[in-house]
Every structure is written in structure tokens, then in C-alpha cells.
């Protein structure tokens, strides 16, 4: 709709234009040269006054005669942001190698490889990031991943991308210490990575409402995910949904008062569960397909995801694990590293897309600033993650202990 200012400008222009022209025509009808000179002057004056309200003619001509530079095929829209919904359209195929170790190193199975269809990758610019590309994208960033074992496997995929193979292998034993937090730093890139053991939604809410509010800064990238422990110990989709609503509210309150662009927020979805492969009777009884669908519905309907007005972009682990298939899991719940590699690259491509579309770019962070923030962060009143957690113990305090390692990436 035309704004009130534009409407007032048009009315004023009509008065300025037609009243003098009428008077000039009445008094100067016998002097046509003077009449048209006055009309030309008034028309130019009106044009100057209206020009701020009208798009420029060169822009109109260019938009009419020239195609949009970012035009894409019909199945992928022209703008980068509209390509985000297509990020999970990956294809799976048998890898050329004869086998690959499962995520926990317990054995070897036929490997599966993932990729984006070439047409989609070309239209939307999706790409696997090299170590240098990922380091450049995350340069000076604080990455925090909080959740259960699925979140831990995502951190492993990130370390394998950022670090050389020897450094990533050396970090793995510390990362997989049972029910514990983990920290890694890549000083040469100014990147810090934190894993926070938070298997229940109450842990995530406390992290957002209490711990991060006391931090000198918030993470640049925040990945949260939970649900498996709730499904096993509580087996109540409605209460899970209520807990998710609390997480969403805490995340929104974390974003709203910030004077700088808010962090990239991602929600790690639940994996596809292969019931007969689950390794305990309790898991097979409580973690079935019906319950998984009910939990997935709560994720979609509780104001957590962007499509439902929430702050998080979904990393659809369920879709990716189902696509990879049963051959990608040894226990029906935890999947091979290539699945979490796909999750990681979907996240990084979404961040790259947001970076391209962002109008207000974040000021470049330095390695010193990132490390300084992490020197302060352990002083926060963090709560104990190093003990077993059950449904009734979800609200217990965590200890302030953090396992920290410093790793130098070699480009």
C-alpha cells in the first residue's frame, strides 16, 4: 500500500502543479512560450519533490530487461534463504571402501556415503566444506553443543573436520568419557568447542536461563538436542512437549535482549530407532515407532522450530538416519560417523546461507576474544554432569568441572 507520506506528497504536487498552471493559462493564454516555460518549470519542481518516493528509472529498466542474477530452477527458489528447506535432500549410496568402523569403534560394516544431488547442489550452492573452509566460516567462534550422546557424536564430526586425523583421534577418548562435559580449543583459528552433557530438557533450560545468562558472551553457534533419555525414563510425549516449550521460551529470552546478532541456533532431532536392534528390554519396550512419532510431533508443535515461530532450525537426524538405513547402526540408536558428518555439513551450509543473507554482519572476532570468554566461562555456576542422571534427578545441580583440552589444527 502507498504510505501516508506518499499520498500527501501526491496531493501537494497536484496543488503545486495544476493551480499555477491554471492561473498561468488564464493570464498568459496569449503568450504560449511563457506559458509552456512556466509549466516546464513547475513540472520539474514537482518531479524533484516526488523523486524520493519513486524507484529510480535505471533500476526499473534493469529489473525489467535483465534476469535476476541468482535465478535457480523451479525446484529450488532463487534466493539463498529459500534453499534452506532443501538442505536435508541428501542421497545415500554404498561407499567404494569395503567397510567402515561404527561410531563407537565396536566393529566394521559396509560404509554408506552421502551427497546432495548435483542439480540441487548447483542451484543452491550446497557443498562439503574443507577444513580450511570450515575454519574460515567458524573463525573466532564459540560453538556449544548440549544434549545427549547424539550431540556428542555431532561434536566428534566437528572435531574430525577441524582437526587433522591424529589430533581428532587423540581427542576422542576424552570426548567419550561417560556422562561428562568436554572442551576443545583450536587456537590457530580462534575456535572453541564445548560439549555439555545435558540429557534432559530441564538441563537445557537451566543452561539457557542460568549458566549462559552469567556468561560474558553467548555462543556464536548453539546446538541443542534431547529426548532419548526422556523417552526411556518418562515415556510421556505430552510432558516432553511441555519441557520443550520451556526450552523454547528460555532460548527466546536469550536472544531478545542482545545488542548484537543472535547466535545460530539449531535443534538436533531424534534419530530413527530400529527397535529390534536396541540393546536392552527397557529400550525395546519404551522406545518404539509409535512413541518416536509422538515425540517428533511435540518437537514440531511446541514453538521450538522456526516453522512454528521458534528460534531453532531443525537438524533432521531422523530423516538422515532413516535414509542411511539399518546398516549404519550397531545398536539401533547410535549411527555411523557419516550420518553426523551429513548433519554437520547441513548445519554449516545453513550458517553460510545466513551469513550471505545477513544485513548486519557481526564484527570479526579474534582468537584472543574467544579464548578470553572461555577463560571466564568455567567460573559460572555450572552443575554436575559427571554422575548418572535419571528422570527424578534431572533437576540436580551440576558440578563446575569441565574437561578441557587444547588442540592445534594443522591446515
From TrEMBL:
GO function terms (MF aspect): acetyltransferase activity
GO terms, biological process: xylan biosynthetic process
Annotated GO CC locations: Golgi apparatus; membrane
Key words, A-Z: Membrane, Transmembrane, Transmembrane helix
Residue intervals passing through the bilayer: 6-26, 33-54
Tree of life domain: Eukaryota
Predominant cellular place of this UniProt entry's protein: membrane
PANTHER family from the UniProt entry: N-ACETYLNEURAMINATE 9-O-ACETYLTRANSFERASE, PROTEIN ALTERED XYLOGLUCAN 9
Protein name from the UniProt record: Pmr5/Cas1p GDSL/SGNH-like acyl-esterase family protein
Upper lineage: Eukaryota, Viridiplantae, Streptophyta, Embryophyta, Tracheophyta
